[in-house]
């Protein structure tokens, strides 16, 4: 065979390196979270990426996408639970690509600086639209709150707070049962603020520990409803939340009580879990350990010797377990609440700004968004 008849394989395009920048994406994200108590992690991540684009001198689309990809990975790596942020960073990158492809004809032949300014402006509009999702969800959820009904909720959810506030403004007469988290690592300040807001709206509110939920349900004369929030929704319709939601969902199913999850569609994540335990969470970037087996001798002989040499009295009996329990509690508080996945078969429906849907419809919504 002649050498000239052989076809030359196509060259693989060289990946574009991320342009250097002094912008600190992690600091920008943390500042957004601290300065605005109403902002959600996905929106804070998107706003941080917009600030990154605005502060970086870029000259091509390839540079822009490389910069976003590199700093998105850096931001996700800094978080104990990167799943909600990944929803925001992936959505924004998809929005940016779509904006490049569908830019107005008036900008087709413009230089990149003009196009970049247009994209940043449109991105800010996108964020404002996403922030308005909460009010729309509240309108969709309002029919679920009947007069003389009881709503049960758990954790800190801005969406659920908006729903209950709207129902109170509409003069609906209802009670709220707020399930307190079992973990001391949960954000107590946020929970106390949520409960005080409900009471200021003259909504009769009762707080119960999680282990008292079955007894409380048996004490109600009418069937209640569960309205819960979520930090993220995975491709199969399962939800990512603080630990405790899975237990609540199992109890709700055992009592045949509907459980509705109120969540913005920008929290949908294009990721299909292969399970609901530690391995599934680790695959999503979450590493945590809730099992810590120990005995009084686990500190080791060397540590005990060092303590005695320093004149520290060895702890025994109740003193040991008391100090170890306090130490563990302090460690958990510094780490924040644990994360878990609640499977879709325990969820009655998702209430979003796009309407009410079953968990099975999440994959279809993601297909519409991405393809």
From TrEMBL:
GO cellular component, one term: cytosol
Protein's UniProt keywords contain Protein biosynthesis: yes
Major localization listed first in the record, in broad terms: cytoplasm
InterPro entries assigned: eIF2B_alpha/beta/delta (IPR051501), elF-2B_alpha_N (IPR042528), IF-2B-related (IPR000649), IF_2B-like_C (IPR042529), NagB/RpiA_transferase-like (IPR037171)
Tagged with keyword Transferase: no
Keywords attached to this entry: Cytoplasm, Initiation factor, Protein biosynthesis
Location of the protein in the cell: Cytoplasm, Cytosol
Composition bias type Basic and acidic residues, residue spans: 312-329
GO MF terms held by the record: guanyl-nucleotide exchange factor activity; translation initiation factor activity
Membrane-traversing stretches: none
Annotated region (Disordered), positions in chain: 1-21, 295-342
Similarity comment: family membership: Belongs to the eIF-2B alpha/beta/delta subunits family.
Subunit description: Component of the translation initiation factor 2B (eIF2B) complex which is a heterodecamer of two sets of five different subunits: alpha, beta, gamma, delta and epsilon. Subunits alpha, beta and delta comprise a regulatory subcomplex and subunits epsilon and gamma comprise a catalytic subcomplex. Within the complex, the hexameric regulatory complex resides at the center, with the two heterodimeric catalytic subcomplexes bound on opposite sides.
Protein's recorded name: Translation initiation factor eIF2B subunit alpha
């Amino acid at each position: 065979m002649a050498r000239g008849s052989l076809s030359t394989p196509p060259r693989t395009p060289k990946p574009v390196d991320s342009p250097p920048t002094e912008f600190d994406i992690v600091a920008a994200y943390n500042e957004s979270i601290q300065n605005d108590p109403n902002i959600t992690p996905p929106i804070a991540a998107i706003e941080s990426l917009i600030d990154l684009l605005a502060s970086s001198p870029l000259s091509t689309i390839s540079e822009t996408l490389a910069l976003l990809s590199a700093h998105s990975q850096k931001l996700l790596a800094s978080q104990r639970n990167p799943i909600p942020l990944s929803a925001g960073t992936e959505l924004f990158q998809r929005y940016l690509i779509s904006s490049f492809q569908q830019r107005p004809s008036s900008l087709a032949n413009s230089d990149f600086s003009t196009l970049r300014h247009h994209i940043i402006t449109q991105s800010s509009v996108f964020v404002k639209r996403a922030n308005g999702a909460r009010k729309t969800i509240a309108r969709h959820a309002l029919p679920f709150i009947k007069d003389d009904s009881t709503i049960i909720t758990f954790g800190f959810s801005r969406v659920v707070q908006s729903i209950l506030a709207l129902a109170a403004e509409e003069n609906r007469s209802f009670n709220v049962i707020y399930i307190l988290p079992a973990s001391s690592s949960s954000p107590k300040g946020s929970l106390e603020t949520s409960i005080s807001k409900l009471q200021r709206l003259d909504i009769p509110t009762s707080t119960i520990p999680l282990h008292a939920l079955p007894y409380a349900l048996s004490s109600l004369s009418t069937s209640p409803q569960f309205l819960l929030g979520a930090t993220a929704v995975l491709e199969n319709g399962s939800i990512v939340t603080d630990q405790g939601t899975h237990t609540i969902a199992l109890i709700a199913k055992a009592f045949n009580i509907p459980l509705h999850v109120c969540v913005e569609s920008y929290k949908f994540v294009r990721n299909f879990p292969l399970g609901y335990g530690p391995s599934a969470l680790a695959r999503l970037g979450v590493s945590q350990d809730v099992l810590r087996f120990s005995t009084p001798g686990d500190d080791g002989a060397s540590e005990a010797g060092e303590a005695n040499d320093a004149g520290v009295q060895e702890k025994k009996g109740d003193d040991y377990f008391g100090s170890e329990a306090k130490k563990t509690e302090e460690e958990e508080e510094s780490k924040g609440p644990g994360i878990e996945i609640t499977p879709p078969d325990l969820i009655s429906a998702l209430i979003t700004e796009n309407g009410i849907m079953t968990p099975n419809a999440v994959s279809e919504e993601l297909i519409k968004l991405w393809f």
